[in-house]
Write a structure and sequence with these properties.
The complex is a heterodimer of chains A (234) and B (742).
Chain A: E1 2-7, H1 14-24, E2 28-33, E3 44-47, H2 69-77, E4 81-85, H3 87-94, E5 101-103, E6 111-119, E7 135-142, E8 146-148, H4 151-159, E9 163-168, E10 187-191, E11 197-200, H5 218-233
Parallel strand pairs in A: 1-2, 1-3, 3-4, 4-11
Antiparallel strand pairs in A: 5-8, 6-7, 6-9, 9-10, 10-11
Chain B: H1 7-13, H2 17-27, H3 33-42, H4 45-48, H5 53-56, E1 66-68, E2 75-80, E3 83-91, H6 93-98, H7 100-116, E4 121-131, H8 138-155, E5 159-166, E6 175-185, E7 200-205, H9 215-218, H10 239-252, E8 258-263, H11 268-280, E9 283-287, H12 300-305, E10 311-316, H13 321-330, E11 334-342, E12 346-351, E13 354-360, H14 361-366, H15 381-385, H16 397-405, H17 414-417, E14 428-430, E15 437-440, E16 447-453, H18 456-461, H19 463-480, E17 484-493, H20 500-520, E18 524-530, E19 534-535, E20 539-540, E21 544-553, E22 570-574, H21 585-591, H22 603-618, E23 624-627, H23 632-644, E24 648-650, H24 661-666, E25 673-677, H25 682-692, E26 696-702, E27 706-709, E28 713-716, H26 717-726
Parallel strand pairs in B: 4-5, 9-12, 17-18, 24-27
Antiparallel strand pairs in B: 1-2, 2-3, 3-6, 4-6, 7-10, 7-11, 8-10, 9-11, 12-13, 14-15, 15-16, 16-21, 17-21, 19-20, 22-25, 22-26, 23-25, 24-26, 27-28
Classes of the chains: A alpha/beta (234), B alpha+beta (742).
C-alpha cells in the first residue's frame, strides 16, 4: 500500500502528510514532484495543502496545469484514490475532478481553528472505518474554503450523497454557528459520483496524534490503507 | 583634504559632515557617488549600530550550549539529541508605519531568511506589536495582522505566539517586531563567512528591482512629514518565492560545496557581501552587470542598494557552481554567479569592464564612527514615579474585572491568532493564547517553548526595572508550560538617541536586560536595535525593549498549560504580593493614569518561584500553571477560568499588613504564578514550597461557572467571556445569506 504525496512549488502540507504516513502509520510514502508525470505506483495520491504557485490568479488555478495532473486525472478516471486536502481540494475543483468551487471565506479573513465534522458517508474508501454520523475533530487553515456550487450542482451533490463531511457542533448538529467560512450547506468535504476522489478543506494530517489535539484524522488514513489493501488482495 | 560634497548629497545618504570627514580620512580620497551611497547605508544606525554597539557589549552572550552568539544572521543553541535551535527577533517598525501590510509581511520574510541562512528550517514565528489606541489605529493594526498572516500562512511557517498592546505613544510609531525560530542538526549549522579566495558568489532568488532603495537609511531617521514620500523605500513581499527559496536552501544542506549562505536584507547586496566578507576577513569582487534584474536601466548604485526581497547570497566552491544552480533551477529560481571571494580585503564593484567602486570591507562594516550621545534622565522622570494613590477608594471589584478583561490590552487575542496558521507542522503542543507556545521536536520527546514579551509602560516609568521585568516575565512564561529557559534574543525599540533622555533610557534598559540575564544565566544570542521611533506629531515611543526567549522541556508529556482542568482542584498563588499598582493596567483602565513605580523586581525570588513551578511540573503535580502579569492576580485567575471553561470559588481575600485590597487583586507584583492541583498533590506541593522558600497561598477551588471571592467578587464566566472575546473585535457583520443549514 503506497501513498503518493504531490509536491507543487508552494505546497506546505506535504511534510505533515508524509509524517503521518511514514512515521505514525509506517505506510509506504513517495513524494511526487509536480513536474514529473509518474505516480510511482501509488495506490492513493494526496494533493496536500499549501499555496501552490502562490495561489496567484486563483487558488489552484495554476497547479491544475502542472504535468503531474495529467496522470492524476487518468488515475482518477481508472478509479484510483485521489485525496485533495485544503489547497488540494481547490486544485481538484479547478481541474474539474470535483464540482463546485472554493471562494473567499465569508469573514474575509484567514481562519485557523479546530472544527468538528460530521461524517455522512461511511461507504467510501476514505471513510470506511468511520461510524455513520461520527463527529471528527479536525482543524482548518485557509482563507478560501467557502464551498460554493450553483443550485443544480448542489442538489445533484445532495441527491447522490456526495457530501462526505459537514461542519457541525461538538455533538454533530449541523448549525450555522459551526460553519467557519460560509460554505453552502456547511459542506467541508465532497466526493465525486464514483466515490474515489475526495476533496476536503480540513487537515486530517494535523489531527493524527493526541498530543497535538486530536487523532481523529487517523480514521481517514487508516480507511484508505484498509480499502487499498482490500483492493490489492481482492 | 578638500571636502566639497554638498549638504544635499549627504542628506540623501543620511551621513553627517563629521562622518563624511572620517570617511575621507580613512579612505585617503573622496568617494565617488556609488561609494558614498554604499557607505551611507552601511554606516546608518540600522546597519552599523554605531550608537548602541558599545552598550550591546554589556549583554552576556556566552553560556552552556551556545553554538552561535551575536554577529551572525541568527543565534544558535544546542537543545540535545543532535539538534540546535536557531532564533532571532527583528523590527520592521518604520516600513509598517507607512505601509502596514507590506511592512509587516516583509518583516516576517526578512527574519525567516536570517534563520534559513543558518541552514535551519524555520518552525515558528512570533510577533510583538504596539499600536495607538483603537479604533483610530485600526488601519495599522488590521494591516499589520493581515501582513503577518499573509506572509507566514503562505510560506507555511506557523505563527505560534505573540503579544500586542495599545498605547497613545505608538499612534504615529507602531512597533512590529518579528521573531523566527528554526531547527537544524547541530553539525549542519551554517555560517555566513565568505571564505576562500576564488570561490564564487551566487545571487539567488528574486530578481533585483528598484524597490526599497535607502530603506536602511530611512529606518534611521525620525518619521517626518516626508514619510509618505518615502513609500518607495518600503519593499513588497512575495512569500511564494521565499517558500521556493527556503526549500532550495534546505536542499543545499546536502551539498558540501556550499561555503556560506547570507540573507539580503537592509542595504541589499552592499551589506550582505560586506558582512559575509567581513566575518571571514576576506574581500569580494562583484560585477553588477551579472545581477539578474526585473527593471531595465538600473544604475550600479541602484543595483548595489536595492532592497528587493527574497534574495540570498550563496558562497560556493569554485568549479562547483553548477550543482548549486541546478538546485535553484529545480525550484524555478534565478541563480547567477555575480562575483567571487578575494583576499585583498576590498569590496570591489564593477559594471562589466567599468570600475564602479572599491572600498575596504572593514571600512564598510566597522568604520562608522561610534556615537556616544549625551545621557540624562528627563527632569520629570522623578515626578512620574511618585504616585499619591493611597486615598483613592477601591472601586467595585467585579465591575473592574470585567472592564479590565474587556480592555484592548487584556482582551482575548483569539481574533488575531485565528488569522494565523499556528498548527502547521503538527508540532504545536501548547497553542497561542497561553503563556508560551510549546512545539515538539518531532522524533524526540523534547519540546521547545517560546515567548516574546515586553512592557513599555513599566520601562517609561523606570527603564532599568522595566527591562528586568521583561526578561523575568518571559522566563516565567516558559516555566508556566514546564520549560527551562535557554537563551534570549532582544529587540530594542527606542526614540531618537540624540536626545539625552532617550539615550539614558536605552542605557538603563540594556543594563536591566544584562542584569536579569546574568542573574538567570541566560545568554543573549542575537538581537536588533530600532531607534528613531518618534515623530513630530507623536513624540517618542515608550522605551520598549522586547525579549524573545526560547526554552527546553526534555519530556513533552510533562507539559503544563494555563487552563483550569477539574472541578474541585485547589487554586494556589505562588509568590508574594505587594502594593504594586504603579504602571498597572488597573491604574490605566480605571483611573486613566500612567504613573508610579513599576512593580518591584527581585531576581532571586523570580528564580525561586520558577524553580518551584518547574520542579512541580516535572513531578507531575500540576494541573495548570499561569504567570501573574498585567491585570494582577484576579485577571490571571480569570484567564485560567476562561481557558478552562471552569469557575472558582474562593473565601474572602484578606489583604494582610499594609497591602491594599485593590493591589491584592489587581496589583502587578512580579514573581508570582497561579497554579491548580488535585488534593493528592497538595502535601508534595507544600513540601516543595518550603524547600524552595516560596510563598504558597491557597486561594480557593475550581468550581462551577462563576468567579467568586466571598463578599468581594462574583462574576458570571459567560458574561466575562463575552466582553473578553469582544475586546478587540468590531461587532460582527450581519450573517450573509446562503449560510445554509439543512
Amino acid at each position: 500500500m503506497r501513498f503518493g504525496v504531490v509536491v507543487f512549488p508552494g505546497t506546505w502540507s506535504d511534510r505533515d502528510c508524509g509524517w503521518v504516513i511514514d512515521q505514525v502509520l509506517g505506510a509506504d510514502l513517495r513524494y511526487l514532484w509536480h513536474k514529473d508525470r509518474d505516480l510511482q505506483g501509488s495506490d492513493c495520491v494526496i494533493l496536500p495543502g499549501g499555496f501552490s504557485h502562490g495561489d496567484y490568479l486563483r487558488t489552484g488555478a495554476i497547479a491544475r496545469f502542472s504535468p503531474v495532473m495529467e496522470p492524476v486525472a487518468e488515475f482518477a478516471a481508472r478509479g484510483g484514490l485521489v485525496w485533495g486536502i485544503c489547497n488540494g481540494f481547490q486544485i481538484l475543483c479547478e481541474a474539474g475532478l470535483l464540482p463546485g468551487a472554493l471562494i473567499r471565506n465569508d469573514t474575509l479573513q484567514f481562519r485557523c481553528e479546530w472544527t468538528h465534522l460530521v461524517c455522512e458517508r461511511t461507504d467510501t474508501a476514505f471513510t470506511s472505518l468511520v461510524e455513520r454520523r461520527q463527529v471528527l475533530r479536525i482543524p482548518i487553515s485557509h482563507g478560501e474554503g467557502n464551498y460554493f456550487a450553483d443550485p443544480p450542482t448542489l442538489s445533484r451533490l445532495e441527491q447522490h450523497g456526495q457530501v462526505v463531511f459537514r461542519y457541525a457542533d461538538e455533538r454533530g448538529f449541523v448549525v450555522p454557528a459551526a460553519n467557519p467560512n460560509g460554505s453552502v450547506h456547511n459542506i467541508a468535504g465532497i466526493v465525486n459520483e464514483r466515490g474515489n476522489v475526495l476533496g476536503m478543506m480540513p487537515h486530517p494530517e494535523r489531527a493524527a496524534e493526541v498530543s497535538v489535539g486530536s487523532a481523529d484524522g487517523l480514521f481517514l488514513f487508516r480507511s484508505v490503507i484498509d480499502s487499498a489493501l482490500k483492493v490489492l488482495t481482492a | 583634504m578638500p571636502v566639497a560634497v554638498p549638504d544635499r548629497k549627504l542628506k540623501e545618504v543620511a551621513l553627517s559632515r563629521d562622518e563624511y570627514r572620517t570617511l575621507v580620512d580613512k579612505l585617503g580620497r573622496e568617494p565617488n557617488d556609488i561609494e558614498l551611497g554604499m557607505v551611507g547605508v552601511l554606516w546608518s544606525e540600522h546597519c552599523s549600530y554605531k550608537t548602541s554597539k558599545a552598550l550591546l557589549r554589556r549583554l552576556p552572550s556566552q553560556g552552556d550550549g551556545v553554538l552561535q552568539g551575536p554577529g551572525e544572521n541568527a543565534g544558535a543553541v544546542d537543545v540535545g539529541e543532535g539538534w540546535a535551535v536557531v532564533f532571532k527577533v527583528e523590527s520592521h517598525n518604520h516600513p509598517s508605519a507607512i505601509e502596514p501590510y507590506q511592512g509587516a509581511a516583509t518583516g516576517v520574510g526578512g527574519i525567516l531568511r536570517d534563520v534559513i541562512a543558518m541552514g535551519a528550517r524555520p518552525i515558528a514565528l512570533l510577533d510583538s506589536l504596539r499600536f495607538g489606541p483603537l479604533p483610530a489605529a485600526a488601519h495599522h493594526f488590521d494591516g499589520v495582522v493581515a501582513g503577518i498572516g499573509g506572509y507566514g500562512n503562505c510560506i507555511g511557517v506557523p505563527t505560534v505566539a505573540g503579544e500586542v498592546y495599545f498605547e497613545d505613544c505608538y499612534a504615529q510609531n507602531p512597533l512590529v517586531n518579528a521573531m523566527c525560530v528554526g531547527l537544524v542538526r547541530a553539525d549542519r549549522l551554517k555560517r555566513a563567512r565568505a571564505e576562500g579566495a576564488g570561490n564564487s558568489l551566487l545571487l539567488v532568488g528574486a530578481q533585483t528591482g528598484r524597490d526599497g532603495i535607502h530603506g536602511a537609511s530611512f529606518a534611521s531617521l525620525d518619521l517626518d512629514e516626508d514619510a509618505e514620500e518615502r513609500r518607495p523605500a518600503v519593499q513588497v513581499g512575495n512569500p511564494f518565492l521565499e517558500k521556493c527559496l527556503l526549500e532550495a536552501c534546505m536542499d543545499l544542506a546536502a551539498l558540501p560545496s556550499v561555503v556560506a549562505i547570507q540573507d539580503l536584507g537592509a542595504a541589499g547586496l552592499t551589506s550582505s557581501v560586506a558582512e559575509a566578507a567581513g566575518r571571514a576577513g576576506s574581500g569580494a569582487l562583484i560585477d553588477v552587470a551579472k545581477v539578474p534584474r526585473r527593471e531595465t536601466g538600473m544604475t550600479p548604485y541602484e543595483v548595489m542598494l536595492s532592497e528587493s526581497q527574497e534574495r540570498m547570497l550563496i558562497v560556493v566552491e569554485r568549479g562547483r557552481e553548477a550543482e548549486v544552480i541546478n538546485v535553484f533551477q529545480t525550484w524555478d529560481l534565478e541563480a547567477a554567479v555575480i562575483g567571487e571571494v578575494t583576499d585583498d580585503g576590498l569590496l570591489t564593484v564593477r559594471n562589466g569592464e567599468q570600475a564602479a567602486a572599491s572600498l575596504p570591507v572593514e571600512l564598510l562594516t566597522e568604520g562608522a564612527p561610534p556615537r556616544r550621545p549625551e545621557s540624562r534622565p528627563r527632569p520629570e522622570q522623578a515626578t512620574i514615579l511618585s504616585l499619591d494613590f493611597m486615598r483613592r477608594e477601591p472601586p467595585d471589584l467585579s465591575r473592574t474585572l470585567k472592564r479590565l478583561l474587556g480592555s484592548p490590552n487584556l482582551a482575548s487575542r483569539r481574533s488575531i491568532f485565528r488569522q494565523y496558521d499556528h498548527m502547521l507542522g503538527a508540532a504545536t503542543l501548547v497553542p497561542p493564547g497561553g503563556d508560551a507556545a510549546l512545539l515538539r521536536i518531532k522524533g524526540t520527546r523534547r519540546a521547545l517553548a517560546m515567548t516574546i514579551d515586553g512592557n513599555g509602560r513599566y520601562c517609561e516609568l523606570d527603564p532599568y526595572v522595566g527591562a528586568q521585568i521583561a526578561v523575568a516575565e518571559a522566563a516565567r512564561n516558559l516555566a508556566a508550560v514546564g520549560a527551562r529557559p535557554l537563551a534570549v534574543t532582544d529587540c530594542l525599540n527606542f526614540g531618537n538617541p540624540d536626545r539625552p533622555e532617550v539615550f539614558w533610557q536605552l542605557e538603563e534598559a540594556v543594563a536591566g536586560i544584562a542584569a536579569a540575564c546574568r542573574a538567570f544565566g541566560l545568554p543573549v544570542v542575537s538581537g536588533n536595535v530600532s531607534l528613531y521611533n518618534e515623530s513630530e506629531a507623536g513624540g517618542a515611543i515608550y522605551p520598549t525593549p522586547i525579549i524573545g526567549m526560547v526554552g527546553l522541556l526534555e519530556d513533552y508529556t510533562k507539559r503544563v498549560d494555563a487552563a483550569f482542568k477539574e472541578d474541585g482542584d485547589f487554586v494556589l498563588m505562588i509568590g508574594a504580593s505587594g502594593n504594586d499598582l504603579g504602571g498597572s493596567e488597573y491604574l490605566k483602565v480605571v483611573f486613566g493614569q500612567v504613573a508610579g513605580r513599576p512593580p518591584a523586581i527581585d531576581l532571586a525570588a523570580e528564580k525561586a518561584v520558577r524553580e518551584f513551578v518547574l520542579a512541580a511540573a516535572q513531578a507531575g503535580l500540576l494541573h495548570s500553571a499561569h504567570d501573574c502579569a498585567e491585570g494582577g492576580m484576579l485577571a490571571a485567575v480569570a484567564e485560567c477560568c476562561l481557558l478552562g471553561g471552569l469557575g472558582v470559588r474562593c473565601p474572602e481575600l484578606r489583604a494582610e499588613g499594609d497591602l491594599r485590597l485593590d493591589s491584592a487583586f489587581f496589583g502587578e507584583s512580579q514573581a508570582r504564578f497561579i497554579i491548580s492541583a488535585g488534593s493528592r498533590a497538595m502535601p508534595d506541593l507544600q513540601a516543595l514550597a518550603r524547600r524552595q522558600h516560596v510563598e504558597f497561598d491557597l486561594l480557593g477551588n475550581v468550581h462551577g461557572d462563576r468567579i467568586v471571592f466571598e463578599g468581594q467578587v462574583d462574576v458570571d464566566l459567560g458574561e466575562l467571556r463575552d466582553g473578553w472575546e469582544r475586546g478587540l473585535v468590531p461587532p460582527p457583520p450581519p450573517s450573509p445569506e446562503g449560510r445554509g443549514t439543512i
